[in-house]
Every structure is written in structure tokens, then in C-alpha cells.
Amino acid sequence: MHILVIEDEPSLRDGLHDLLSGRGHEVESCARAEEAWERLESSQRGLCPPFDLLLLDWMLPGMSGRELCRQIRAANIEVGILMLTARASETDKVAGLREGADDYLTKPFGVQELLARIAALGRRLPQLSRGLRLESDGCHLDLGRCLAIRDGQEQPLTSRESAILRLLWQHRDRAVGRDELLEKVWNAPGDLRTRTVDVTVAKLRQKIERDCKCPTIVQTVKGVGYAWGRPEG
Ligand code: CA
Fold first, then answer.
1. Which of 25, 52, 107, 187 gives a 20 to 30 Å CA spacing to 132?
2. DSSP category for residue 173
3. How far is it, in rounded angstroms, from Cα 98 to Cα 96?
């Protein structure tokens, strides 16, 4: 998993970093919620791989873990949040879960419990999209490496094209509007015209579709936007 550790206590932060890296996770860490938010925004724009899980300290200088959690959920960023809290009171834990945390650990915690909870979240969370490998209509998509492979031919995808595919796949039960694509992939609501989305999708289709005139992977949904795969019914 791609994990972001947000913890202001250096020894704990470094300890978590080393522990999780040693277990094969790709780990980044920072001391402040504001910095974590910047990294999350970059990942939302496709500028770096998305995070699967945050280990989020509740008590941070500046923006608190709780505020960051609320902000992440308000922005609909799909990432697991395991809160680390020194507070043992039930009301605090309940408040944290209400703000959108997926689970919590009360400090001090044991390594085995931490690893078990991370493994459990990994099984539960649906958005483990980093390194996502998909196959649709004969086209293999390796989104971790930004590649489309059809008939043995590799085509590099831009990070934006990969982000579009990832988003459509994550929401494959519905259509994704052009506004939502602009907001989540370009991070630019209102600044760009929706035509920008169509131009990018047209280029993407040339790389992945068998026949761009009759696309089967990125479907147009009239009046809405785009959807993954064949339309229902
Ligand atoms: Ca702290």
C-alpha cells in the first residue's frame, strides 16, 4: 500500500516509517496536516500516485488530525484513514469515526495490533487503486506504470489520462460528470471549459480503444460525461 504517516512526534513518525517500509509498503511521512493536504491534492491531480491509507495523528500543531479528516471527506478524497490518538475516551473515538476515520488506535499501541489493523483496512477498503491493473476489451491498463498495452504494443499514458481511467473505474457503477472530472483530475472547477475533458478523452481513446468511433472502455454518457465500460441495459 501507499501510506502517508502524519505524526508530529519525530521518533514515532520515523519508527512507523521504518516499520511499514520494512513490511513492503511505500511510505511517506510528514509532521503537519497542512503538508499532508498538499500531498493529497497533488495525488488527486494525478501528479503523484494516490495514497491508499493515512496514519493520522489526532493531535497536531496547526491544523488538527480531526480537521484534516473532515476536509478529506468533504473533498471526497478516497483514502483509508487510521487515526492515532492519545485520547482514550469513547466520545473522542466516536467523534473521530463520525468525521470519517475508518478505524483508530489509542497510543501507546503494539506493533502487532497496528499491522493487523492495517491489513484489515487493506482488505476492506475498495480504493486500493495504486498499481491498478485492469483489462477491458483486449486492452491491458497498468495504471501504476501509466501504460496501455494492446496486441503487445505498449502506449504510455499521461498521468492525467491514468487519473481519468482510475476515477472512472473507481466509480464504475455510475457515470462521472465532466465537472467532476475537471474538479478531481484537473483540480480546476470553473477555470477550464468542459471541452478540455472531451479533448483529453479523445486522445486517451486513441491509445486504448479498439475503434475510437465505437468506444467500449471509456463510454460517453449523453448529457452527463463518461463512464467505465459498457453502459447498463
Ligand atoms: Ca501529536
1. 187
2. T
3. 5
pLDDT digits (tens, 9 = 90+) for 48-84: 778 889 999 999 999 999 999 999 988 878 789 999 9
Find the 60 Cα to ligand 1 centroid distance in Å.
5
Q: Which tops the pLDDT comparison, 24 or 28?
A: 28
Extract the C-alpha cell encoding 40: 493529497
CA of residue 201 to ligand 1 center, whole Å: 43
Q: How far is the CA of 88 from the centre of ligand 1 (A)?
A: 14
User: What is the Cα Rg of the chain in Å?
Assistant: 19
Q: Identify whether the C-beta of residue 73 lies closer than 8 Å to the C-beta of residue 82.
A: no
Report the separation in Å between the CA atom of 133 and the middle of ligand 1, taken as the mean of its atom positions: 37
SS3 at position 71: helix
pLDDT in tens, 183-212: 888 877 665 676 889 999 999 999 999 999
CA of 24 to the centre of ligand 1 (A): 25
Query: What number does CATH give the domain 2-129?
Result: 3.40.50.2300
Where are the chain's structural domains?
A: 2-129, 133-228
Rounded CA gap, 62 and 87, in Å? 18
Give, rounded to a whole angstrom, the gap between the first and last alpha carbons of the chain. Answer: 35
Cα 64 to ligand 1 centroid, rounded to whole Å: 9
204 with 213: CB under 8 angstroms?
A: no
pTM here is: 0.59
Contacts of 192 (CB under 8 A, 6+ apart): 182, 186
